[in-house]
């Protein structure tokens, strides 16, 4: 059974005003005091962000429990210093990000200017184990057209600097400003993958291989494929659904590779349009069908994804959980829909933050 790990970035906010607060260092200090030697929580680019990483899990119920536990622990540590955590991929309220003191982050800010200063965005990264770089690159080549669907499922960033952005996942549009971000061409082999990353570093435009911000990549730290397209999800159940479907996609892609089935040869330009469409529409309209790259209702695309990974989900015992997750998501909407629903009911953006703090811990 392939193991799965999840990294989530959370927003630190004032529990009364809803404004983001640059208190990550204090939260981390509190976490270290309460649990010496803890390695779950980490700092991020800005002081208003807190990241946690789960352990690799083979059982998805265990992974779901750990996501919930990490969120509650983050909320507890934050509460002890007078702030709260919210699973928000962007701040609904205006914010001036505070750069974390770190040589790498200072280099990013100086190198990329306003493009880096805008990156107060919170994502969800899913790591799925692979047997080798050969299998990993084969998986990357076959995942490409389905990644925008994961963006649509997770979309949780409709508001930006006090205004409705018009997007379901504005985080993904902000993230795409990095020069190395986005979909990739077919690699075909580990040698070509590693050569491409080395060539990118050699340009001097990016600092190192850690800045190869592909939508999906080989992890430099673990024997995993790392899928990086999701917003941090408002609800832990949605994060678990994204992780479950991601493992299903990885297993399905690996099986296709072993059986000799070629990777779809979609162009990067069309995949970029699919990513844009997913960010704009989320689940509320049409996505570009991953097979044809033509418009299709989002619900039908989700059911096609379930069909595609059905055998893999059956093999891991996740089929019923995934089907229920998709049905619940289509019935209630993703995080972006829930945020907008608060405003439609007469709430303010401050109310949006308050509700999201509650949902993050609930």
Automatic annotation (TrEMBL):
ATP-dependent carboxylate-amine ligase which exhibits weak glutamate--cysteine ligase activity. The keyword ATP-binding applies. This is Putative glutamate--cysteine ligase 2. Belongs to the glutamate--cysteine ligase type 2 family. YbdK subfamily. InterPro entries: GCL_type2/YbdK_subfam, GCS2, Gln_synth/guanido_kin_cat_dom, YbdK. Its EC number is 6.3.2.2. It comes from Streptomyces malaysiense. It catalyses: L-cysteine + L-glutamate + ATP = gamma-L-glutamyl-L-cysteine + ADP + phosphate + H(+). One of its GO terms (molecular function) is glutamate-cysteine ligase activity. One of its GO terms (biological process) is modified amino acid biosynthetic process. Keywords: ATP-binding, Ligase, Nucleotide-binding.
